[in-house]
């Protein structure tokens, strides 16, 4: 007796960029590098999506300067995703960006969605109540289940690593450091491929546990003493 051709329903995988566009991102071409790196990540994300045929990958982006705003909303299917460049100005409302994410997932996340992926890219220190917003993220089920990746831009000594580490609570690797545009592009590409694969593979039960383990991040390809340094 022939087996009927059953189509498995796709589950939604939501990928969120939390992107710092504060005034300090004007320094040494950081905002240009950010725009370029996000654009360059798109083909790799499309490839990763094709390897997970039962997941529908949607891209969202929240930018934060003096305010936090949706830059890509609602989520766009990765196959049709086109990045619109952002400009840098203002303060660093990182907490407000987390609040926007929490508002969204608490109201609109489908019950059968895969754990979301959050990629935070920042070069500075929050100027709002980050800790209060972080408490809300920890108390939100989809916030606890999310794969959270923090990428620090700029000279290592200028980055608030304590904030980046707290954002990645209960993850099993450390925040990443992008000292130049090549590092940033490598890390965003890595985040947008292995995190997708890990989320898709690690939550067949609906994502009721902690975020799955991720492979080690790539080492920076080069150490640059001058020139292309943020």
Description:
- The protein has helices spanning 30-50, 94-108, 130-139, 141-145, 161-167, 181-201, and strands at 11-20, 55-64, 68-77, 117-122, 147-153, 176-178.
- With 230 residues, it is an alpha/beta fold.
- The model is unreliable at 204-212 and 220-228 (pLDDT under 50).
- The protein is built from six helices and six strands.
Summarize the structure.
With 230 residues, the protein is α/β, with parallel strands linked by helices. It has helices spanning 30-50, 94-108, 130-139, 141-145, 161-167, 181-201; strands at 11-20, 55-64, 68-77, 117-122, 147-153, 176-178.
Tag the structure with descriptive keywords.
230 residues; alpha/beta; 6 strands; disordered C terminus
Count the strands?
Answer: 6
Query: What order do the strands of the largest sheet run in, or round the barrel if closed?
Result: 3-2-1-4-5-6
Choose one word for the global shape.
globular
Output mean pLDDT: 83
What share of residues are in beta strands?
15-25%
What is the helical fraction, as a range of percent? 25-40%
SSE class = alpha/beta
Oligomeric state of the chains in view: single chain
Q: What does the largest sheet look like?
A: 6 strands, mixed
Order of helices and strands: EHEEHEHHEHEH
Low-confidence stretches: 204-212, 220-228
First and last CA, distance: 64 Å
Count of alpha and pi helical runs:
6
What is the C-alpha radius of gyration, as a whole number of Å? 17 Å
